[in-house]
Automatic annotation (TrEMBL):
InterPro entries: AAA+_ATPase, ABC_ATPase_HisP-typ, ABC_transporter-like_ATP-bd, ABC_transporter-like_CS, MetN_ABC_transporter-like, P-loop_NTPase. Belongs to the ABC transporter superfamily. Keywords: ATP-binding, Nucleotide-binding, Transport. It comes from the Bacteria. The keyword ATP-binding applies. This is Amino acid ABC transporter ATP-binding protein. GO terms for molecular function: ATP binding. The lineage of its organism: Bacteria, Pseudomonadati, Pseudomonadota, Alphaproteobacteria, Rhodobacterales. Residues 2-236 form the ABC transporter domain. CDD domains: ABC_HisP_GlnQ.
Amino acid sequence: MIELTGVSKYFGPFKALDDIKLTVRTGERVVVCGPSGSGKSTMIRCINRLEEHDEGKIVVDGIELGEDTQNIRAVRQDVGMVFQQFNLFPHLTVLENLTIGPIRVRKMEKAKAEALARQYLDRVHIPEQAGKYPAQLSGGQQQRVAIARSLCMEPRIMLFDEPTSALDPEMINEVLDVMVELAGTGMTMVVVTHEMGFARKVADRMVFMESGRIVEVAPPAKFFSDPDSDRARLFLDQIL
Ligand code: ADP
Ligand code: MG
């Protein structure tokens, strides 16, 4: 579903991604971890072309990402993304935040878009918040709205970039629970997170990055108990 081969990315002279090779199969859940600045965000942002890679090849759902704007549009229709900051439209209600994409981009009828939106609000367990504005919700609720909003575009892949890092501790689980449920539906997911309980529960594979490189790829059982690299071991010692 996602294939990165020899992908490198520079910011000026600085090499933020260095010869990345990663394949994610349909329905697979990959959790990406590593120290701050190791290139985790840059890598997943390249998957939906929020960043352009400089070298190598990225193919998403059979479409190669390059200069072709039609390809970029096609990939973005396939790929949903949830960020640390929820990025909801503050002047729109929850329901409107969910329907604006389907109506504007998918040209869906309003009634149909609203039915879809309510279905996904149910899925993230906040159907009663449809008429509120983002500022009236807790952080955990806002992030669940952001997840529902992405799902309304019916993506085949969901990318998450530290979705719980901006949340108060007591709200982290309500968001992770929704993500675990999403994993249960068979969604292909790439999740940057340091929530290792979540990773153990859903990850098919752990990817550990450092200095723009993928240092280690392993199933969670192996990664957490007996990582091959000293760097991963050191990292786990620090966060666990
Ligand atoms: P992570 O998500 O693992 O914390 P990032 O992918 O955000 O790391 O960043 C990787 C490196 O690239 C960091 O050193 C960061 O400072 C640098 N970087 C990220 N975005 C930019 C940018 N827009 N311009 C310049 N440098 C950047
Ligand atoms: Mg990041």
